[in-house]
């Protein structure tokens, strides 16, 4: 099956450039949107696999559009945030709204295509280390917010350990080495963590680990 994408950006030249890059690699761009409201409507109409979503757009910004898309489409459509700034405060808000990662707008064509395909596969685009930088800068643990999440007591002691280490930036291979487990076992643990907590991907798991206080801002790999 071909990969279907929607491009949402208020700059026509950006949309055109991204469309050319994606279609040249066999990705089907099924719609374009110039603002968040158009993006939400396009997703409802075309049900794409991935949305490339700008943050700052008129009428409705990319954060609100992401929130509405994720709420309506459940886990079917993945949102990939586009931003001009590496540590934009809006990126963290977008991640907590349900985005599966973010890209800088100056990415190479190869990186753009790889990112879209990676997100479509169900993985999180950005490395946990990058997510951690965002979370450490903008996440503030607060009990009222933490109670909105599912209880971490649903996790086994081993799953809690995996989640904590994952949030410090360890890859699956590094997790396997640290815990003396096979890569397959680590993948199973991660999948169960996401399922039990109702999370979309590793990015959301990292955000949750900080917001619930499982790991403290500034905590690094041991």
TrEMBL record:
Pfam families of this UniProt entry? GerE, Response_reg
Q: Does the keyword Metal-binding apply?
A: no
The GO biological-process annotations, alphabetized, read as: phosphorelay signal transduction system; regulation of DNA-templated transcription
Per the database record, which ranges form the HTH luxR-type domain? 148-213
Q: Name one GO molecular function term.
A: DNA binding
The uppermost taxa in this organism's lineage are: Bacteria, Bacillati, Actinomycetota, Actinomycetes, Streptosporangiales
Keyword vocabulary terms for this entry = DNA-binding, Phosphoprotein, Transcription, Transcription regulation
Q: What is this protein called?
A: RNA polymerase sigma factor, sigma-70 family
What PANTHER family has UniProt attached to this entry?
A: TRANSCRIPTIONAL REGULATORY PROTEIN NARL-RELATED, TWO-COMPONENT RESPONSE REGULATOR
Q: Which domain of life is it from?
A: Bacteria
Q: Which residues form the Response regulatory domain?
A: 4-120
Question: Which residues does this entry mark as bearing 4-aspartylphosphate?
Answer: 54
């Amino acid at each position: 099956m071909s990969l279907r994408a929607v491009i949402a950006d208020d700059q026509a030249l950006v949309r055109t450039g991204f469309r050319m890059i994606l279609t040249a690699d066999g990705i089907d761009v099924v719609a374009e949107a110039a603002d968040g409201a158009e993006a939400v409507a396009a997703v409802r109409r075309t049900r794409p696999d991935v949305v490339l979503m700008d943050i700052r757009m008129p009428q409705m910004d990319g954060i609100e559009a992401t929130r509405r898309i994720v709420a309506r489409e459940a886990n079917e459509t993945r949102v990939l945030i586009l931003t001009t700034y590496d540590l934009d405060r809006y990126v963290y808000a977008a991640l907590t709204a349900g985005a599966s990662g973010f890209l800088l707008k100056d990415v190479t064509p190869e990186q753009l295509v790889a990112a879209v395909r990676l997100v479509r596969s169900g993985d999180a685009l950005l490395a946990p280390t990058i997510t951690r930088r965002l979370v450490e800068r903008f996440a503030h643990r607060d009990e009222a917010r933490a109670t909105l999440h599912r209880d971490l007591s649903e996790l086994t002691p081993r799953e809690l350990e995996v989640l904590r280490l994952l949030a410090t930036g360890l890859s699956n291979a590094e997790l396997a080495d640290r815990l003396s487990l096979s890569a397959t076992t680590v993948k199973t643990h991660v999948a169960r963590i996401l399922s039990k907590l109702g999370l979309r991907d590793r990015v959301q798991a990292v955000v949750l680990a900080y917001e619930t206080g499982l790991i403290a801002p500034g905590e690094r790999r041991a």
